[in-house]
Design a protein that fits this description.
The protein is mainly beta. It has one domain. Helix content is 14%, strand content 37%. The chain is built from 4 helices and 11 strands. A hairpin with a 3-residue loop joins strand 1 and strand 2. The chain binds manganese (II) ion (MN). The site of manganese (II) ion has 6 residues, from strand 2.
Length: 206
């Protein structure tokens, strides 16, 4: 227990695990299942959506202030954040005040994904795709399906990532799941309901 993990140094260094119920991350699964993606809605200082992709034992993470779009070609700013442990993928709850990322988290969407990144007509591993700054994935979530690209533009301090909906059969400019489907895919509850439920439990003293 509580063995520090080199891959998760940044994640573990930002948090006090006596105070937050977020997972420490001492389990690295090595299964052969399809890799997982998760999008967590996080009502922190600024509401945002955390996109996480399972890559080689950790969750590679980007914060998306406006959340993902289903409109073909729609671009959303995606800010890289620290790698998270795999068991963060089903974390929901309230990160207490004065802790890093304080606020309520729900699992807004999740499911398997497929790496469809190609370079010169050949498939390349996710790690290489991320290093190159050009990632294409096929999501099989409950709310989001089909192709999304993560693209790094600019260099050095000016570099930024964009999440772009690939124009495919699943693209639909009329849908807007960020506003019409705000609830958790695990519990059916919204951020507000999750927050008040946790508060009630604390008030019950147990
Ligand atoms: Mn976050």
């Amino acid at each position: 227990m509580d063995k520090k993990n080199k891959l998760l140094e940044k994640y573990q260094g930002k948090r006090d695990f006596r105070k937050t119920s977020e997972p420490f991350g001492d389990e690295l699964s090595e299964d052969n299942n399809k890799p997982l993606f998760v999008i967590q809605k996080h009502d922190a200082q600024n509401l945002h959506y955390d996109l996480r992709l399972e890559v080689e034992g950790v969750l590679k993470s980007w914060a998306i202030p406006k959340g993902p779009s289903t409109g073909p070609g729609d671009k959303r700013l995606a800010i890289p954040t620290e790698d998270h442990p795999l068991d963060y993928a089903d974390f929901e709850g309230v990160i207490p005040e004065d802790n890093y990322g304080a606020g309520t988290v729900i699992v807004w969407d999740t499911g398997p994904y497929e790496n469809i990144t190609e370079k010169n007509g050949k498939k390349i591993p996710m790690k290489e795709a991320i290093d190159t700054g050009k990632v294409s994935v096929n999501l099989d979530g409950k709310k989001l399906k089909g192709g999304y690209a993560l693209i790094r533009t600019g260099a050095g301090n000016r570099s930024r990532w964009l999440l772009v909906k690939i124009d495919d059969e699943e693209a639909d400019a009329r849908r807007n799941p960020v506003s019409t489907e705000p609830e958790s895919v695990l519990t059916g509850r919204t951020i507000e309901e999750t927050a008040s439920e946790v508060a009630d439990k604390l008030n019950d003293g147990g």
